[in-house]
Specification:
seven-stranded mixed beta sheet, twelve-stranded mixed beta sheet, 31% helix
């Protein structure tokens, strides 16, 4: 049959022969017995409209590396939409027959995929544990019901019956006990109904890549990933060090509402909406519906960043909690308010040790932020934000200057990058600063407790900021021409030099920064009287020394101009502006030619100083515009800490700090989109908690009254500790 295997075979009863790719080929009785030919009764079976009870019990024949293996190859090559591909590594091939001997289906199992994010997150194993135990997973790589076989419920019954055969044959043949089965389903072709009916569990999607000899190639067809656990507790069965909060087993769905976990719903009547984070709206029932729908649509953009299904509920809850009216927005109050006491630890584990990647969430956030705020002439802003802490166990905590307190105290320090344009502003990136003393031997044990990644090296705050800006520039998501920052970054020449060469900067500097109005002459002094040559460059005799920028600001020749800088909450903001070309001093020697930009307050006469590498022909108006975009990052910090719980966290680990900050910036972006969406209503002056002249409720009223309203938008159907929409709770969607 070697010549027959490359083609697919269909038996022709009338001529006692098979057709191979349309060509007739006589078969020897030694190759296949006519009376046992599996193709003989396909037409009869199809036309009989058989019931499942008429073909049971099914007979499973494992045919890999047997004389009948050619039939499996031929069937798959002819009828499976992916075609035939030789199964490498550990594998099993099955032909499934009815009780009467008719061939019904073919099924193939092979070695599991080496890396599969959604599966690996569901199991919760490390890379070393995956390498060790990967052989205990089998992949259902082919599943084919013979064309013409139309028996209701056959596919799910086959899958359910196949489990025991695969587990037994895999251990018999390879000496490995299976713990998990996996498969991929193309959602553009199939709905995975048979897998779900057979109790397979959906855990996520692939990213649309296929492994090739040279790495991975993008094919653009993400597949749904389903798994079937063969152990009650896989983590325990494999002896994994890390135990996820909910193991993948067949109680998986029962921990959450089956419909709710696919679709996050705003629990607006549990904690209330924080009315301070959005302008006051006049809201009617339709507006409330829009608000809930907006959150659902927004959260759906991030759902696949969390891998495990129960993480969807926990992540949605945490995001809602940050935007709620709770006084304290740490994990316990959020969980108690939105989930119930039984889920407090689950939320804590999700943030502290859940198996999901905050970098993926951050990248998705930046992609969405670019759609909202990226515009011509955009500006990256860098700044630090400090978080006072009383204890000594939190990651990165130590005595250092705390900007919030204005003194040296016990705190954590973060470095952030924001983006601003005429479309709005958003925080994009965050890094936790680790003081240098955290890298000594005394902190070894604390490194382990805080789960700081191996290979982390000491980096200054300017180095962290440079790393983030360079990464954002490589991503290319934002139209950014400028970088702004406070004087902590502006006074650092290494930071200024490390910025992308195609970007301009306008960075604040201290008033004592040394500059020249004109470039002084330098030279190498002649040899000394002893004949020793001098190699050090210095100023020529008689050249003036650099002066402080504050001295230059008092130069009467400066041309100050009073301008409208921006429109504030209390009216137009006005200031005096001046600029002058200077030469910056570097270790007492002249450096680059730069702009010194000066801004003087009309209220108290205080002067702010900034350096810019902008070209000579840059307009003053452009520099004024950029200077105003320096402050949105401060607004992000103020809003984050006062309204969104940016500093309410009680986490101690490295991952938890970065995860919390990522959720904060995701929440801020949603609020920005809500402002844009409801902007037409924000001009109405409605006092918090009041009503407008037309008697329509404010947003605060909606939060208080939602429970008593018989609303089609939200009902008080509670499932799994969270309020669901009526449609979700009743399974109408």
């Amino acid at each position: 049959m070697k010549d027959v295997c490359p083609g697919s075979m269909i038996y022709c009863e009338s001529h006692n022969r098979a057709t191979v790719d349309g060509r007739a080929l006589c078969l020897r009785t030694s190759q296949i017995a006519v009376e046992n030919n599996p193709f003989l009764s396909i037409r009869e079976l199809a036309s009989a409209s058989s019931k499942l009870s008429q073909v049971r019990p099914l007979r499973f024949e494992e045919v890999s590396r047997t004389a009948d293996g050619w039939q499996w190859d031929a069937l798959v090559r002819q009828w499976h939409y992916l075609g035939y591909r030789k199964l490498v590594g550990m594998h099993l091939k099955y032909l499934i027959y009815s009780s009467g001997g008719e061939l019904l289906a073919a099924m193939g199992w092979s070695s599991s995929v080496w890396k599969l994010k959604s599966r690996d997150q569901a199991i919760g194993w490390s890379s070393s544990e995956r390498k060790r135990f990967l052989g205990s997973i089998a992949n259902n790589s082919r599943f084919l019901i013979i064309p013409g076989v139309k028996i209701p419920h056959l596919a799910s019954h086959l899958l359910a019956q196949q489990i025991g055969h695969v587990a037994k044959d895999w251990e018999r043949k390879y000496g490995v006990r299976l713990q998990l089965l996996e498969t991929f389903v193309d959602p553009s072709r199939f709905r995975a109904t048979c897998y779900r009916a057979a109790n397979w569990i959906y855990v996520g999607r692939t990213k649309g890549y296929a492994k090739t000899r040279n790495g991975f190639e993008y094919h653009g067809q993400p597949k749904e990933v389903y798994v079937y656990p063969l152990s009650t507790n896989i983590s325990k069965a494999l002896g994994l060090q890390h135990r996820p909060e909910i193991t993948v087993n067949h109680q998986y769905y029962k921990t959450l509402a089956q419909k709710e976990q696919r679709r996050a719903q705003m629990a607006i009547d549990k904690a209330g909406w924080n009315t301070k984070v959005v302008p006051p709206f006049r809201m009617d029932r339709e507006d409330l519906s829009d608000l809930v729908k907006a959150f659902e649509e927004y959260y759906a953009l991030f759902r696949d960043c969390f891998g495990r299904i129960e993480h969807e509920q926990l992540s949605s809850t945490y995001l809602q909690g940050l935007m709620s009216s709770l006084d304290r927005k740490s994990m316990e109050p959020i969980a108690l308010s939105l989930l119930g006491e039984s889920r407090v630890k689950a939320l804590q584990r999700f943030i502290n040790a859940g198996v999901w990647d905050a970098q993926d969430l951050g990248k998705r956030h930046r992609e969405e932020a670019a759609k909202t705020v990226s515009g011509p002439g955009g500006v990256f802003s860098v700044d630090g934000s400090d978080f006072p802490k009383k204890g000594t166990e939190s990651v990165g905590v130590g005595r250092q200057y705390c900007g919030r307190l204005g003194k040296v105290d016990n705190c954590q320090a973060g470095v952030f990058v924001a983006y601003a344009s005429n479309k709005g502003h958003a925080l994009l990136e965050r890094r936790l600063f680790l003081p240098q003393r955290w890298f000594d031997k005394e902190h070894t044990e604390r490194w382990k407790k805080c789960r700081i990644p191996e290979g982390t090296t000491f980096k200054t705050k300017p180095e962290l900021a440079l790393e983030m800006i360079q990464g954002l520039r490589r991503e290319g998501l934002f139209d950014a021409q400028w970088v702004t920052g406070d004087d902590f970054f502006g006074r650092n020449p290494t930071f200024r030099d490390g910025l992308p060469k195609d970007m301009l900067y306008l960075l604040d500097i201290p008033s004592d920064t040394r500059v020249w109005k004109k470039r002084p002459q330098i030279h190498i002094p002649p040899p000394s009287k002893m004949g020793h040559p001098c190699k050090k460059v210095c100023l020529k005799n008689g050249e003036p020394k650099a002066i402080r920028a504050s001295v230059l600001a008092m130069d009467p020749s400066l041309r100050w101009k009073t301008v409208n800088v921006a429109e504030g909450a209390k009216g137009m903001i006005r200031a005096k502006i001046a600029r002058i070309r200077i030469v910056i001093s570097r270790d007492g020697l002249p450096g680059e030619d730069l702009w010194l930009f000066l801004r003087k307050s009309l209220a108290d006469g205080q002067v702010k100083y900034a350096l810019s590498n902008a070209p000579l022909d840059i307009s003053l108006q452009e520099m004024i515009r950029v200077s105003t975009l320096r402050w949105p990052i401060e607004q992000c910090f103020q809003e984050g800490k006062s309204e969104i719980g940016m500093d309410h966290y009680e986490h101690r680990s490295w991952d938890a700090w970065h995860r919390h900050m990522t959720f904060v910036v995701v929440a801020q972006l949603f609020l920005l989109r809500i402002r844009h969406r409801f902007k037409k209503k924000s001009s109405v002056d409605v006092a918090p908690g009041g009503s407008d002249d037309e008697g329509r409720p404010s947003l605060t009223d909606v939060s208080k009254e939602i429970r008593s309203r018989d609303s089609a938008v939200l009902s008080e159907t509670k499932l799994g500790g969270q309020v669901l929409s009526r449609e979700v709770a009743t399974g109408a969607i």
